[in-house]
Amino acid sequence: MSTTNGMIGKSVKRVEDKRFITGKGRYTDDIVLPLQTHASFVRSPYAHANISGIDLEVAKTMPGVIAIYTGADVAAINGVPCGWQVNFKNGDTMKEPKHPLLADGKVRHVGDPIVVVIAETAALAKDAAQMVMVDYEELPVVINAAEAVKTGAPLVHEDVPNNICYDWALGNPIAEVDQAMEEAAHITTLEFVNQRLVANPIEPRSYNAFYDEANEKYTLYTSTQSPHLIRLLLSTFVLGIPEHKLRIVGPDVGGGFGSKGDHYAEEAVLTWASKNINRPVKWTAERSESFISDVHGRDHVTKAEMGFDAEGKILALRVKTYANLGAYLGTFGPAVPTYLYGTLMQGLYTTPKINVDVTGVFTNTTTVDAYRGAGRPEATYLLERLMDLAALEMGKDPAALRMKNFVPPFDGVNQPGYQTQVALLYDSGNYQGVLEKGLKMLGYEDFRRKQLESAQNGTLLGVGFSTYIEACGLAPSALAGALGARAGLYEMGQVRVQPTGKVSVYTGSHAHGQGHETTFAQIVASKLGIPIADIEIVHGDSDSMAFGMGTYGSRSLAVGGTAIVKSIEKIIEKGKKIAAHRLEANADDLEFDQGKFTVKGTDKSISFGDVALTAYVPHIYPADLEPGLDFTSFYDPANFTYPFGCHIAVVEVEKDTGKVALQRFIAVDDVGNIINPMIVEGQIHGGVAQGIGQALFEGAEYDSNGQLTNATYMDYCMPRADDFPMFETANQITPCPHNPLGVKGAGEAGTIGSTPAVVNAVINALWSGGHQVKDIRMPLTSERVWRAMQAPVNE
Amino acid sequence: MQIRVKVNGIDYIHEVEPRLLLVHYLRDVLHLTGTHVGCDTSICGACTVQVNSKPTKSCTMFAVQADGCEILTVEGLAPNGELHVLQEGFKEMHGLQCGFCTPGILMTMTDYLKHNPEPSEEDIRHALKGHLCRCTGYQNIVKSVQYAAAKIANKEEVPA
């Protein structure tokens, strides 16, 4: 289909902005229903304890209290389900202990919900919750994944030996990798922690549930990334209510970053309770609650080794990771450190032998699940840290070392895709191109000169590289199923042409900042040749659209956008038949362009709006054609998409304090074709900011008792405006060969690429001053960097 | 306790609990839900409104403390439907994504521009320090403020 009005590739200003900048956004907590009640959860202050008693007597007498429920009240209800199954190496299924909606006599992490109090106002609910008396018998606590698997470690779930959810491996047989390592001239080894992060969307999680007694139907407003997924899980797997009797609405959502992709216990408790009390019940997390109850991200302990021959060609990669899954399995939890991590170990390189071995471990901490990038940042961090460190150790240039090992360019059409050692088939790539562009933007040779001069003057300048690839556009359902997904990962797009030619589009994708209302409208405007003002994009309501898998894994445009394109194709196809009848021509002789159906080679034409009206007022109409112009398509992608890029950081490290100043950040990203460059650049900015956040500022810190010691915005350091220079961004475009838009996905790329670039730059700066440090634990605070510099200097 | 306030030009008298926070008064009593709660502890800035023309984090102020005050919220920035030049800047420069932190930033920076009509990039970044945005990486927020500053420099008055 031709691009008819230049809408694709244009930085159209966002149509959704007006409501947000005028305070008219409608987030879940903004919704007040008639007879609204409010909930407050009593949560465990201990990381691991038996509950020996719950005394509700005083709480029940508090003003405004409507109902109080404990674990006993919901014991008969299923627990929170997990959406992805990972198997042990020996084929056994992973350990999947029940995740009760409210604690079942035992609490397993600080923040585990025990009691819900429902009252007339939020303040009264909180007042009463404070009067709930819970008796705890404290149990020993285990926090660290690598410690948790040791014999004698406390058990988070009595029926999970050694706290091991699964041990899993991918790639070439370990014996082959060991053999290749034996032959290596140099092995770079890195033992490191990829620290736990908290996603921290600024909108806290919020739910509002009500039960319509007359129609026996539940409605849940929820700050979610995936309304239909929540409906499926909540109706069928948790509460056992018919799917058509549960409506899920995800209104405006104030950021998600993966943490709102999960199905949460609070959603189920509120929905269940709304029927019991026969009134709507709302809960919005306080920030201190968000910190201990929203799913966290990352938290790996890893040993990685990369073997090289004498020329610097990679021979093998061997990885052992302990992945902390938290106390319970998140919706995607088991998949993140396996199928979204191990599968990325090829990186951009031709490494012939790879083995990645992951042990997923339960601990007395908040559940760990997807956080922006989800597994792919961890893989990229590992590979790209190894590459820069190997270059330093071998005295080679890090850019040249990469060039030597890159998979050569391939477009996936004339050249086949690249089959990795770790299950994936890359679609198309030009990895040299992004690095070359990045080096040019940096002015590499000049920088190295400047760095040398600076070192002589005692200033520590460093440059760090990261050339990343990711797998997104989740996902081909059959492949995802083979990898353990318990759902298909297609997307739905319905295009409803109204009788006047205006268009409503219903998508199963969900926007929480990504600008779908604009980008998707651009696609429709372009394909149908109509103005954006004539198009409305509707998302987030399970009663409005057929189905949807939601938004995560940078999938909305590649999968959801394509589903819309498929429906548009059907619209045009049918439109041709209608137009042919009106024009007394053969449908095969018609072409559609610029919003008009024209008989080829003639000036006989009919407008799109006219055809739409004919479809709905079919007085002159083909006898064998149904009236109406409305199509729904489900698109199941043929493959993942594989964006890639090159991120480069330049830092100066202050010698006396260890303070890191980020001087420049260059991001060259190849996300395939671009529909709206402004929005893509915005996604990259935000992603890069979060990735730099991990490198320099952020990290969830548990003490040995399992207390999250920095569970406030005061203590959990997120980057602010004055922490960054202007990011220097550029694109290379290598279209995706297997979707009609040629798009790959841009939501996570920035986060995936940026973290190792910054850490590598700091390490490089330290080496330039003779401090041959292999690793500094993230975040690279002044103290940690300063301590690293106190090691003896090698001149 | 009884309070009298003027919010976005309209006078109100209400009986409120002494413990009611200003942000909850605005959201729950006046249904002005454009002002958001992000952190409850005045760190994120999403709840910022102007109290007597001064940017104020309304999650850390009691409603009773606002007795007798004039309050401007994001809903009052474009009273006649004509966008404030900074609102326009946010739209033009893609200064927002999920939009949750945006109203608070607008309330701080509209005031900032009144007193600092020609800020440098560094000035703007410093002025934004009281706000957290998790979506944008701040770059386009800085550009949005620069857009507004440039428009103001061309002799356009800053309203409100």
Automatic annotation (TrEMBL), chain A:
<dbReference type="InterPro" id="IPR046867">
    <property type="entry name" value="AldOxase/xan_DH_MoCoBD2"/>
</dbReference>
<dbReference type="InterPro" id="IPR000674">
    <property type="entry name" value="Ald_Oxase/Xan_DH_a/b"/>
</dbReference>
<dbReference type="Pfam" id="PF20256">
    <property type="entry name" value="MoCoBD_2"/>
</dbReference>
<dbReference type="InterPro" id="IPR036856">
    <property type="entry name" value="Ald_Oxase/Xan_DH_a/b_sf"/>
</dbReference>
<dbReference type="Pfam" id="PF01315">
    <property type="entry name" value="Ald_Xan_dh_C"/>
</dbReference>
<dbReference type="Pfam" id="PF02738">
    <property type="entry name" value="MoCoBD_1"/>
</dbReference>
<dbReference type="GO" id="GO:0016491">
    <property type="term" value="F:oxidoreductase activity"/>
</dbReference>
<dbReference type="GO" id="GO:0005506">
    <property type="term" value="F:iron ion binding"/>
</dbReference>
<keyword id="KW-0560">Oxidoreductase</keyword>
<dbReference type="InterPro" id="IPR008274">
    <property type="entry name" value="AldOxase/xan_DH_MoCoBD1"/>
</dbReference>
<keyword id="KW-0500">Molybdenum</keyword>
<dbReference type="InterPro" id="IPR016208">
    <property type="entry name" value="Ald_Oxase/xanthine_DH-like"/>
</dbReference>
<protein>
    <submittedName>
        <fullName>Carbon monoxide dehydrogenase</fullName>
    </submittedName>
</protein>
<dbReference type="InterPro" id="IPR037165">
    <property type="entry name" value="AldOxase/xan_DH_Mopterin-bd_sf"/>
</dbReference>
<feature type="domain" description="Aldehyde oxidase/xanthine dehydrogenase a/b hammerhead">
    <location>
        <begin position="22"/>
        <end position="140"/>
    </location>
</feature>
UniProtKB/TrEMBL annotation, chain B:
<keyword id="KW-0560">Oxidoreductase</keyword>
<dbReference type="InterPro" id="IPR002888">
    <property type="entry name" value="2Fe-2S-bd"/>
</dbReference>
<dbReference type="InterPro" id="IPR012675">
    <property type="entry name" value="Beta-grasp_dom_sf"/>
</dbReference>
<dbReference type="InterPro" id="IPR036884">
    <property type="entry name" value="2Fe-2S-bd_dom_sf"/>
</dbReference>
<keyword id="KW-0001">2Fe-2S</keyword>
<feature type="domain" description="2Fe-2S ferredoxin-type">
    <location>
        <begin position="1"/>
        <end position="77"/>
    </location>
</feature>
<keyword id="KW-0411">Iron-sulfur</keyword>
<dbReference type="GO" id="GO:0016491">
    <property type="term" value="F:oxidoreductase activity"/>
</dbReference>
<dbReference type="InterPro" id="IPR001041">
    <property type="entry name" value="2Fe-2S_ferredoxin-type"/>
</dbReference>
<dbReference type="GO" id="GO:0046872">
    <property type="term" value="F:metal ion binding"/>
</dbReference>
<dbReference type="Pfam" id="PF01799">
    <property type="entry name" value="Fer2_2"/>
</dbReference>
<dbReference type="InterPro" id="IPR036010">
    <property type="entry name" value="2Fe-2S_ferredoxin-like_sf"/>
</dbReference>
<keyword id="KW-0479">Metal-binding</keyword>
<dbReference type="Pfam" id="PF00111">
    <property type="entry name" value="Fer2"/>
</dbReference>
<keyword id="KW-0408">Iron</keyword>
<protein>
    <submittedName>
        <fullName>Carbon monoxide dehydrogenase</fullName>
    </submittedName>
</protein>
<dbReference type="InterPro" id="IPR051452">
    <property type="entry name" value="Diverse_Oxidoreductases"/>
</dbReference>
<dbReference type="GO" id="GO:0051537">
    <property type="term" value="F:2 iron, 2 sulfur cluster binding"/>
</dbReference>
